[in-house]
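Dataset card, provenance and construction

Sequences and ligand SMILES were collected as paired inputs. For each pair, a complete structure of the chain with the small molecule in place was predicted and serialized as C-alpha cells. The example below shows a pair involving nicotinamide-adenine-dinucleotide. Curators did not alter the output after generation; any descriptive sentences attached to a record were derived from the structure itself.
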Amino acid sequence: MKTLDIGFIGCGGVFNKRHYPTLKRLPRYRIVACCDTNRIKLDKLERDYGIKSTFTDYRDMLQKVPMDIAAVSSPVTTHTQIAMDILDAGLHLFLEKPATFTIEECDRLIEKAKSSPGKLIIGYNKRYMPNIRKAKQALERGELGQIEAVQFLFSTGHRVAELPDWRKERALGGGSFIEESCHILDFWNWYSDKPFNRVCSATSRLGGCDDNPVAFMAENQDGALFQALVSDTLPDQNRFTILGKDKVMRLYTHQFDGFEIQPRGVYDGDLKQRLQNGVKFIRYLPQIGTLWKVGGVYHLSYYYMWKNFHEAITNNVPVLNSLEETRNVQILIKALVDSADQNKWIEINRY
Ligand SMILES: NC(=O)c1ccc[n+]([C@@H]2O[C@H](COP(=O)([O-])OP(=O)(O)OC[C@H]3O[C@@H](n4cnc5c(N)ncnc54)[C@H](O)[C@@H]3O)[C@@H](O)[C@H]2O)c1
C-alpha cells in the first residue's frame, strides 16, 4: 500500500489528541513535517514524537518539504488562506471543520478547488462514527416514517481554563455556534434531503465564553421542528432523539451500543426494551478489544476518516463530504448567529 506523506499546519489540541494518535496507527501515512506559529509546541513535538522537520511559517514548510497531503488544524479564521496556498501547491488537502469562517471564503475555496488537482476532505469526523452511519442508513430506508421532530443535546465537556483563547470569542472563530453546532448542522444536512427553512437561536456567556451554551430551533420544509442545546463546557453529552411518524430513534453517538429504534407507543425506559438493550450490550462485548486498540468510538471516526482519504487519493473512492455541502453548513451557522443577534427567526433563503 502506498505511503502518503503529510505536513500538518496547526499542532494544538485536535492534532495531539486525535490526528497524531490516529495516524500513528495507520502505517499508510507518515507525518513528515509540522508547522505551528508557537515554537514551544514545535519543540515539544520534536521531543515527544521525534518529528524533526518543524516550521513556524507554513509557506516555508510547503516550499521545502516534499509531501502528498497538507493538513490544516489551525483556528478557523486562518483556514482559507492556508487552504488556498495548499491547493495552489497542487497538494491534497485535509481541512478541519468548520471549513471556513465566512460563506464568501467558502465560495472562494470552492472556486479554487475546481482548478486544483488535489483531493479535499473536511474534518467532519462525526459522519464516520458507526452509530451516525447506522442512523443514516435507517433514515434512508425510511424506517421511522416521516420525521416530525428532532432533539439534539451536544456538549463537549471542556473546562474553560483548558480552552484556547480563540475558542472563547466568536470574532476569533470560537463559541458553540461556529465550533460545535456545525457538527449537528453538517450531519443533519447529510441525513436529510429536506433542508431547514428557518432558524431561531439564543446565546449565553457561561464561563465568560461567547456563545456558550447556545440553543436553537429550526424548521424544515415539511414543518418538522428541531431543537438543539450545544455547549463547549457543559458536561459531555451526545444524545439525539429523532421522532418519526412510526418509530423513534435514539442515538448516543460516542457510545458503541448507543443506537436504538423503538416503535411508537413504547415508553422511554420500557422494561422489555431495557432487557433487549442488555442483550445487545453483551453481544457487543467481543468487539471491545478491537475498539480499545483504536482508542474508542470517537477515535474510530478519525481512523475511518483518514482511511477514506487514503482510498480517495490512491483509488479515487469518494470522500463522505464536500466543500459544496459544507457551504450549506456555513449558511446555517451565519443564520444562527444573525438570529441570536437580531432576536428573531431568520429565513434561510435570504442568504
Ligand atoms: N473534528 C473535531 O471534532 C474537532 C475537534 C477539535 C478541534 N477541531 C478543529 O480543529 C481546528 C483547531 O482546533 P484546536 O482545538 O486544535 O485548536 P488549538 O488552538 O488547540 O490548536 C490550533 C493550533 O494552531 C496554531 N496556529 C494558529 N495560527 C496558525 C498559523 N497561521 N499557522 C500555523 N499554526 C497556527 C496555534 O498555535 C495552535 O497550536 C479548528 O478548526 C477546530 O474547529 C475539530
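Derived descriptions for this record:
DSSP finds eleven helices and 14 strands in the chain.
The chain has a mean pLDDT of 95.
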